[in-house]
Fold this protein.
Amino acid sequence: MTAPTFDDLELLVPACAAAHYEEIGIDPMRHDPDGFRWRTRAQIDEGRSWVWIEDGVILFKAEASAWTPDAVQLQQVWVDPAARGRGNAQRGMRDLCRKLLEQVPRVCLFVRPENAPAIRVYEAVGTPPEDHCDACFTGRYPLGDPSEANGKFALELA
């Protein structure tokens, strides 16, 4: 797992666009390709992007959509479809969370409850569900009383 460089931009932009489309059903390259490319470049420049690439294939990638002293919120967690089903998402998420938890006490991300493959990955890396709904959180510390989660899928990194 490394921070991508400008040299990775041509590989990363379509992957970020695919992740965006898979999660919310909107192709950012149709709506604002220049803005999306700028945003992807900005995340690289700001150190808010991580990628695992082998032989020109993205085995895992994620970006930080928010970063505070208390938490990092991940987004666009993605594995190239040709590399799925091989444990890459689990390894990538585990490695990234370990890296981030050295800097902040909590790592969180949102996942749709119908995204069963993603939820299985988060559970497999040691994040047992506390409650189910719209969001998934991982971190060293619980995010509060699960009864107050309003149906959210909350996870705590063990």
Remarks:
- The longest strand covers residues 57-67.
